[in-house]
Amino acid sequence: MIKILRKKISILFAGLLAAIWIIILVMFNWVNYNDGLQRLRYDVNNEIREGGWLTFLSSGGKDEAFDLDGLEYCIFRKYPNGSVSVVANHFPSVSEAKLIKYAQTYEHKWNLANKFSRITSISKHRKRFGNILILLNTQTVLESMAPVLYASFAAAIAGIFVLIVITKKLSGWLVRPVEESMQSEKDFISNASHELKTPLAVVRANIELLEDEIGENKRLQYIDTETKRLISLVNQMLELVRLDAKHTKYAMQSFRVDESLLNVIYPMESVAFEKKVKMDIDVQEEIYLVGNEEQVQSLMAILLDNAISYTPKGGEIAIHAGIHAHKFYLIVANTGEPIPPQQCEKLFERFYRQDMARESTSDHLGLGLSIAEGIVKRHHGRIHVESEGGKNTFYVTLPVMKKL
Known about the structure:
Order of helices and strands: HHEEHEEHHEHEEHEEHHEE
Structural class: alpha+beta
Largest sheet: 5 strands, mixed
Helix content: 40-55%
Shape: elongated
Radius of gyration: 39 Å
């Protein structure tokens, strides 16, 4: 849970800060680009004004008074009837027809600075000259900005990397109080569970002694049943604490997983038989898995016990286990009341039970599937449940490693 919380916080902060950083860089380059366009228009306008507009128009900008070498531009004249003609074209890479089309398309918007990334304009209106439009190629502006653009790109990459590192540290700092609180709760549960085991064992021992002295007694049976439930709850809580603990090491070894599963399944067939539940067992023979054999058996026992508990009289349970494409698959399906889609993920939450209406009578404490999920995660696998076709199916996938 802590890892998921840290990951979500990191993604949220990194995404927001990266977006802000990129927007700042884009705005910075956009402002620089527009400043470059303004400087280009200003310089050309000054050059024309110093040499004289009449000379510039009559010579098409080729007079020696104008130092516009290396700059691509085109001079237009717009007539009262709305037509546009080219006075001089120094755009070797763009045809006159296309330039006229630009002018005609935006004849009421002479300033095209925000319309074309590679063209900007200077407009002039005087009775003596009429409506004059000069289109300027902004390639020189873009070329002058190239170092800044490259630097901005490098800054964006470096900034995002730094932000990821910072957000990871920040997320750790933010969730530390939650992590410490959860660790305190785990420590409390572990300590309390250990402390409860001894008195519960003493209670059970005294129940057995009393039964030997006074014989069978209904009230003693009630006490014994509830004591067993408490012992089961304590053991499950201890198992959850062990699964959550990062420092807990489990012995991993290669073992015959088919034999281990059948050792759990066969003893529970009698329970299913008494409930008149049919079991279909399909376990691939001679398959090996690297992991903790005891935990894998606990996983099988939890899933099968859950299936038997929630399968109605006369229902069916299907168990499939095998290896395919270097993965171990365990599938336990049972007929019964379908699980609503919104509850499928919640089933693996601690103390969550689907049959809340039968909460007081159910033997399930809502920890079994949480333990199953913890075991699967310890083995770097995946577990999920699907409900369709009148069946509730639990799917477990574990990676298969070479034999040790």
